[in-house]
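Progress note, project year one: complex with acetyl coenzyme *A.
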Amino acid sequence: MIKIIGTGRKLPTRAVPNDELAAMVDTSDDWIVSRTGIKNRYVCTEENLTDLAESAARIAIKNARISMQDIEMIICPTIAGDFSFPSLACCVAERLGVKCPAFDINAACSGFIYGMEIAEAFISKYKNILIVGADMMSRLVDWNDRATCVLFGDGAGACVVTKGNALKYIRSNSAPDAKMLYAKSRAGNSPFSKDGTSGFTAMNGQDVYKFAVLSVAEEIKTALAELKLTASDINHFLLHQANSRIIDGVRTRLKQPPEKFPVNIDKYANTTAATIPILLDEMLEEGKINSGDTLMLVGFGAGMTTGTCVMVWE
Ligand code: ACO
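Model obtained:
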């Protein structure tokens, strides 16, 4: 079993408020806020994803009060690092000066929970495992497409896990559907291929919305049943930040008060694999999580994937 001993986050410096997007595509601050809860996002300009991931990792390691050399495995949940290869995790390992197993996993917005489950499986062999959820959706959306470009932001969130009794439940899952939400790999210049793929993000927003509300509520109920708990026993539900209405839809299904479902999507938009560790880090920094609190973390994303975990904070 594992526990989290340090967290960190890093956002790009460039803020892009809704009004700036309204000057680029046919949208408005009103539309974006009322449909999604998003007011702002941060987008890479000078930085790349390795920069964000490295910074978040350094803060998490410092907060964990361990040294770089104590890290024995690095997992980066990400849709796409700065390179097709090497992995983002190897780029981070190089920056940190750490030699250890380092690899990426792609479970889209559920990636952080998948990463935790992998860490849990490896923890008897590797003492401290660094997980860095990092994504740069600004490279993967079509900035002329108002239906997608307003939804995402760039960012990285990290945590260090070690042996402990905090984790009580973890489940990664999928309901495979490659058409609901995807970005096809960009076409190369093979003279033999007729593929002209742009690589931009495409989605059926309403189907994703329905999938998210229904499957997240279902996964939460499964976890609660397995642990013989009720929703009232959970102090904080940290849900993937894709849309505040999705979070609200899940919350009302569980008949829980808004303060138990923290939201920071207004500031950062959807940072994909980074939303959950960024939110966790922010809540810890603000002193909102106390020792003994029960947390439920739930991700959902392309795949379609879900990831659910329950921890009693140590
Ligand atoms: N500004 C103004 N109008 C817009 C915008 C925009 N940015 N985007 C779409 N519209 C228009 C549409 O064109 C449509 O116009 P029409 O009625 O003339 O055809 C109208 O608004 C309504 O569109 P809907 O799709 O019905 O709007 P909806 O209320 O469903 O909200 C949204 C759309 C926000 C995308 C919602 O469906 C949603 O949040 N879905 C989930 C998306 C999501 O979470 N994606 C990330 C998943 S995580 C991952 O793994 C990457």
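The pocket of acetyl coenzyme *A is lined by residues 27, 31-32, 35-36, 108-109, 146-147, 150-151, 181, 203, 205-206, 208-209, 212, 242-243, 270, 272, 301-302 (CB under 6 Å).
The first strand starts at residue 2 and ends at 10.
No further modelling is planned for this target in the current period.
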